[in-house]
């Protein structure tokens, strides 16, 4: 029983719910936490429950299921049986695994947790590192005035589905870290997620001084100093923890710049283990490091004042890494010589990695613009940032009715392989099956909310109990959901742009509509909190009382209910400020449809067959006129398309056009925007190739890093001595060969790649490398190509970049010279 309660595989196994419900139904419904259900049930009641034959059968089935899951063949094991990828270390500030483990804020934690679960399903070897927060992210309460109130309840580790990391002797494991002010201690905890493991660090050790004990108190709370200290614990202590426990990951995956210090500590550990200088170890470590950025605006990067870095990291940099503090600071600066420039964690992550990716196709483009300053004179398209679009772990977010439908169509193991043919299986389902599933899911949401509305809509104030108007939620109404962080760029009040028009839509008795909202604004975001107040005030209008519901304290448990039951999910960010977004992905598996701005994942997912889109696909900043235009388009889509399609029923009471969209959305989008696809893509695009590069550099431990450092140094020193002479590109049909004359200056010509470059006509840029043909007088060298240069001769410009070889260009060598 303890084994089952402490394996978070139960978070995506509907069958497990029956077991915990049979032991203590009341406690299970209140906490959705098997560990609490098991440990807080009175012994006499527990003994009675365990004696019940049905409960015994459920325990036996649960243990059998776990044994099967751990022993079955997996996608990774079958496709890459000879792979030498031993382990991927995944670092993130937050993980949204379950409401039973509240150490998350929102999207970043959702992505991290869902990828861990998918890695377990697929058999990809992943070990993760995060922080155990004493209070986590804040909990929300709404006052009678409609204001948000932040609450900070404590997480008692004894009640969380985690266990302390133990030494081989059975003692509690404690990690010692030496700092400039003395020794500090960190406690380590372990969460089991099927095949994957998540280690969590906390500083609340009684041996530490108060300021240290409070480092892991709140997620995204406090000031810049607290954030820096948390990121030092996550990255530096996190990697040291893995080493202390015997892990030797080949891949270090940094989920956002918060974790960038892990790359430095990885290099330090390598230097110590291999007996080489830190600079050489950096070269090796970089080959196996991947940085995933989630930021869509420069203000989203973590920036720290130089003096703060100096005060907290001088000891680490100079005593542990052997780097003067100014060299350390240069790793996080655009201009290393500018001593006033803030330290940018994302810049550190880029410089510590050999691969960088955004989290949607559009975000990849945005990120190339954000990081372009690090690669001056390089074309934007060649700034080394690719993309892997996020996906969600479908078994975590599906409801029972949807789970049964997918099982019927694709079998029990449908999310554990390549998903091939799954979409076609869904397309074979008839309208009646799909519509029954949707109606059952909507009714389940209405029923679930009716049972907890009082707790989420009432507060006790000076005047006693205060509650929002009792909602009159209907199981047959078009149910629209909107839930996310309330921030200005997300425009959560766009639907209120013309309140009277919205009221007319809500008062239509022939086409009943209801809206369910939830979301938090950061405690320091006054504008976001004002938007919540505006919605609360709107909910209290007597003419639409009960048809618009704002649910306080948006958390994972509420998110699961909403995405399972709503018919339509709204998302209205300003393009391109939402890197990906995952909330709308969660409704896909449940047959919900999306109406969203063409931003993030929806920019690549949208077609008229699967939902509706706002905007013109262009960027307009914060232009109020465009907000007005988007609001009008939103009302028009609801009035002229969404409502008619939902309420236009055939003789069997089924909305044929709406169900057609459900079918195509489920078939086309659910597999594509699943964490299953995302993790397979990370594995094949990054983990496997990078692990091979890492091993190659390790194998050439003595020479490769030295050669690379020497080559980069000489490239940096000699690049200005390069010269481009005469360049000849004949017009098509002239019968002449395109050629150029180059003087390499002090550089080895074999280190250079001489190219003709032209902006893309369609797709990617046109790049043609020239070959050396002869050495001329005074050091000049002739290059030529007989390749077909498509387009006009005037399209092309000669340029010189470092030859790839063992270098990652331009990440390790961002040098480029253009023909004038």
TrEMBL record:
Record-linked Pfam families: DUF3417, Phosphorylase
Stretches assigned to the DUF3417 domain: 2-101
Presence of keyword Lipid metabolism: no
The keyword S-adenosyl-L-methionine appears for this protein: no
Catalysed reactions listed for this entry: [(1->4)-alpha-D-glucosyl](n) + phosphate = [(1->4)-alpha-D-glucosyl](n-1) + alpha-D-glucose 1-phosphate
Family assignment from sequence similarity: Belongs to the glycogen phosphorylase family.
NCBIfam families xref list: more_P_ylases
Protein name per UniProt: Glucan phosphorylase
């Amino acid at each position: 029983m303890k084994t089952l309660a402490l394996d978070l595989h139960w978070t995506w196994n509907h069958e497990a719910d029956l077991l915990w419900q049979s032991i203590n139904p009341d406690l299970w419904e209140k906490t959705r936490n098997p560990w609490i259900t098991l440990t807080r049930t009175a012994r006499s009641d527990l003994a009675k429950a365990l004696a019940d034959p049905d409960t015994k059968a459920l325990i036996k089935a649960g243990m059998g299921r776990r044994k099967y899951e751990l022993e079955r063949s997996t996608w990774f094991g079958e496709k890459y049986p000879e792979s030498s990828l031993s382990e991927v270390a995944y670092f993130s500030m937050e993980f949204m695994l379950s409401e039973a483990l509240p150490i998350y804020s929102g999207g970043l934690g959702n992505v991290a947790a869902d990828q861990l679960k998918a890695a377990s399903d697929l058999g990809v070897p992943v070990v993760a590192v995060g922080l155990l927060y004493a209070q986590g992210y804040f909990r929300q309460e709404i006052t009678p005035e409609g204001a948000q109130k932040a609450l900070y309840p404590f997480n008692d580790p004894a009640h969380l589905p985690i266990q302390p990391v133990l030494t081989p002797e059975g003692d509690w494991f404690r990690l010692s870290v030496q700092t400039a002010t003395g020794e500090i201690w960190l406690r380590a905890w372990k969460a089991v997620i099927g095949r994957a493991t998540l280690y969590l660090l906390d500083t609340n050790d009684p041996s530490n001084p108060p300021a240290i004990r409070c480092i892991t108190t709140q997620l995204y709370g406090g000031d810049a100093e607290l954030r820096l200290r948390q990121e030092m614990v996550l990255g530096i202590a996190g990697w040291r923890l893995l080493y202390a426990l015997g892990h030797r990951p080949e891949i270090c995956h940094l989920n956002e710049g918060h974790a960038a210090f892990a790359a430095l500590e990885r290099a330090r550990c390598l230097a110590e283990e291999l007996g080489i200088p830190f600079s050489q170890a950096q070269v090796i470590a970089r080959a196996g490091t991947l940085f995933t950025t989630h930021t869509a605006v420069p203000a989203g990067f973590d920036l720290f004042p130089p003096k703060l870095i100096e005060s907290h990291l001088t000891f680490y940099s100079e005593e542990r890494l052997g780097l003067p503090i100014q060299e350390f600071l240069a790793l996080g600066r655009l201009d290393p010589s500018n001593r006033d420039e803030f330290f940018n964690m994302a810049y550190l992550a880029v410089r510590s990695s050999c691969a960088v990716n955004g989290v949607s196709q559009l975000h990849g483009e945005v990120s190339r613009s954000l990081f372009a300053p690090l690669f001056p004179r390089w074309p934007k398209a060649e700034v080394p940032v690719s993309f892997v679009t996020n996906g969600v772990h479908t078994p975590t977010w599906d409801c029972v009715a949807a789970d049964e439908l997918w099982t019927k169509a694709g079998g029990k193991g449908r999310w554990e392989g390549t998903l091939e043919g799954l979409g076609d299986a869904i397309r074979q389902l008839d309208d009646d099956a799909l519509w029954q599933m949707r109606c059952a899911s909507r009714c389940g949401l209405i029923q679930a909310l009716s049972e907890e509305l009082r707790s989420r809509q009432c507060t006790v104030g000076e005047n006693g109990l205060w509650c929002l108007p009792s909602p009159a939620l209907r199981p047959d109404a078009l149910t629209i959901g909107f839930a996310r962080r309330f921030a200005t760029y997300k425009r959560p009040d766009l639907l209120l742009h013309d309140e009277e028009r919205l009221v007319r839509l809500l008062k239509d008795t022939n086409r009943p509509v209801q809206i369910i909202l939830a979301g938090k604004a950061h405690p320091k975001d006054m504008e976001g909190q004002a938007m919540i107040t505006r919605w609360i005030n709107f909910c209290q209008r007597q003419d639409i009382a009960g048809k618009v519901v704002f649910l306080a304290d948006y958390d994972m448990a509420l998110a699961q209910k909403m995405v399972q039951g709503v018919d339509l999910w709204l998302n209205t960010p300003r393009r391109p400020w939402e890197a990906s977004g995952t909330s709308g992905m969660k409704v896909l598996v449940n047959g919900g449809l999306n109406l969203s701005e063409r931003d993030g994942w929806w920019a690549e997912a949208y077609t008229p067959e699967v939902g509706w889109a706002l905007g013109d696909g262009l960027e307009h900043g914060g232009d109020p006129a465009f907000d007005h235009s988007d609001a009008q388009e939103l009302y028009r889509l609801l009035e002229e398309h969404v409502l008619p399609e939902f309420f236009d029923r055939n003789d069997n009471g089924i909305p044929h056009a709406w169900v057609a969209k459900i079918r195509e959305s489920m078939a086309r989008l659910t597999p594509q925007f699943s964490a299953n696809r995302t993790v397979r893509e990370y594995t094949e695009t990054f983990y496997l190739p990078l692990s091979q590069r890492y091993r190659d550099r390790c194998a050439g431990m003595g020479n490769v890093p030295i050669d690379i450092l020497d080559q980069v140094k000489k490239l940096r020193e000699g690049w200005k001595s390069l010269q481009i002479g005469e360049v000849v590109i004949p017009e098509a049909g002239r019968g002449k060969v395109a050629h150029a004359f180059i003087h390499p200056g002090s550089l080895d010509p074999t280190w250079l790649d001489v190219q003709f470059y032209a902006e893309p006509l369609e797709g990617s840029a046109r790049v043609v490398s020239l070959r050396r043909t002869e050495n001329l007088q005074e050091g000049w060298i002739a290059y030529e190509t007989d390749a077909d240069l498509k387009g006009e001769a005037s399209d092309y410009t000669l340029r010189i970049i470092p030859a790839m070889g063992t270098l990652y260009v331009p990440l390790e060598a961002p040098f480029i010279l253009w023909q004038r």
